[in-house]
Write a structure and sequence with these properties.
Number of helices: 22
Number of domains: 1
Structural class: mainly alpha
Shape: globular
Distance between the termini: 54 Å
Order of helices and strands: HHHHHHHHHHHHHHHHHHHHHH
Number of strands: 0
Largest sheet: none
């Protein structure tokens, strides 16, 4: 059977293959050019430390280098355990383990092509679906993140895109087991990164509203989703209670994150370098007073600062909003950061990407599509916690697949407008 080039180019499997090969090729070039002393320096930070503790038989503990601080709830469990498995195979903090982790990140980002394609196809049609998928292949952040960061970023982005797709697909669904699988997916995503829970009640409210509009029974299906979700996160919550003697639902680090952007010494709206992750004095204090007491103290200081400095807090929130949407990089890979032309192109492309994304969202809203609420929930609700705490480029990357779909719709809308303008303009009379 003969396949035309056009038929190949619209296949999500071909696009996935192109995305994966492209990232692996760049990963090879980065490692080939990187000095031997560079690849293994503190990658993963607290993620790597917890994974090293697990791999060494110490359990989920000690997120700070080089102190032994005991059991922790600093992070959600899934990715540290995944990284610990890599350490078991390739060695703790070895170059082999680092390469395996980055290859997996590239795979996660490449797999995100499939939910992007399905989301766009369900909302806008085949043309936008193909364009959005290829845009994801070449998107600078989607190339940078899996290679520059050994965190949960790439896996969480894939899972969040699947959550968004599942939310769209569940609209009007009646079957209990499908709602149960939806709750299971939420629990898995929450155990990767709890930030997704900020949109959980809004997605559920939209689904319930759609079910009521369609006169579909929703109480028992929604209850099934909530029950399965609760069953998925409860074991980790019980573990935290047994370890700390108090209720810690998923993570304990919110106090530190709030303090990062809300203290008298914060620079550029955050001060991560002054926390226990990097500051030896703070790390020793963390070890001495314990994780929960340390986080609670930082949260109290942050809240006190916000109350006593409302104007400064407001200005910092505005700066973080700008950084969240228009920041191009906060820790560029050493191989790329020395090229100012590359960085300028990155900034311009990122601004264009975000503006097109909001244009696509506006067009979706104006079309009165019944599917527009989840898109706007992501754009308006998901970033709120980062506006209040601290933000980095990798935090927005989680919603970049949805933004990619919207930006593709923005491009399609712009092309339609230009075509209509060209058709409406009469031909100029000959001179």
């Amino acid at each position: 059977m003969k396949f035309s080039l056009r038929r190949l180019s619209v296949s999500p499997w071909i696009i996935f293959g192109a995305a994966l090969v492209y990232r692996l090729a760049v990963l090879y070039l980065v490692w080939h050019r990187m000095p031997p002393s560079q690849p293994n320096v503190w990658y993963g930070y607290e993620t790597g430390r917890i994974a090293a503790a697990i791999a060494s038989g110490e359990g989920f503990s000690s997120p700070l280098l080089p102190l032994k601080t005991g059991p922790t709830a600093f992070l959600c469990p899934i990715y540290p355990y995944l990284l610990a498995g890599i350490f078991k195979m390739g060695g703790v903090y070895s170059i082999k383990s680092h390469v395996i982790a980055q290859i997996l990140n590239c795979l996660f980002v490449a797999l995100t092509v499939f939910p992007i394609y399905a989301i766009a196809l369900r909302t806008f049609g085949i043309g936008v679906a193909v364009f959005a998928s290829w845009l994801w292949v070449i998107l600078p952040t989607a190339l940078h993140m899996p290679i520059a960061y050994v965190w949960d970023t790439s896996l969480f982005t894939l899972c969040f895109a699947l959550l968004f797709l599942a939310t769209l697909a569940l609209r009007g669904e009646r079957r209990f087991y499908v709602w149960g699988l939806y709750g299971l997916l939420w629990s898995v995503c929450a155990m990767i990164n709890a930030t997704c829970l900020s949109v959980f009640p809004f997605f559920m409210a939209w689904l319930i509203g759609e079910a009521r509009t369609r006169r579909v029974r929703w109480i028992w299906p929604a209850s099934a989703a909530l029950l399965v979700f609760s069953a998925g996160v409860t074991p980790w919550t019980i573990r935290n209670y047994l370890v700390f003697g108090r209720f810690v639902p998923v993570r304990s680090a919110f106090g530190m994150q709030l303090w990062e952007g809300n203290n008298p010494f914060a620079v550029d709206a955050d001060s991560l370098s002054m926390t226990a992750i990097f500051n030896r004095t703070e790390a020793q204090k963390y070890q001495r007073v314990g994780e929960i007491a340390y986080m609670r103290e930082l949260q109290t200081e942050a809240v006190a600062f916000m109350r006593s400095h409302p104007r400064e807090t407001f200005h910092r929130i505005l700066r973080r909003i700008g950084k969240f949407w228009f920041g191009a990089t906060d820790r560029p890979n050493n191989t790329w950061s020395g090229d100012p032309l590359y960085l300028k192109a990155l900034v311009v492309s990122n601004v264009l990407f975000v503006l097109l994304g909001f244009l696509g969202a506006a067009k979706l809203w104006r079309s009165r599509s019944p599917r527009f609420p989840p898109y706007w929930i992501v754009l308006l609700v998901f970033p709120l916690v980062y506006y209040l705490t601290a933000t980095f480029v990798r935090y927005r990357f989680t919603i970049d697949p949805i933004l990619t779909v919207l930006a593709s719709n923005g491009v399609a809308s712009a092309l339609v407008w230009l075509r209509s303008r060209a058709e409406a303009t009469p031909n100029s009379p000959p001179r």
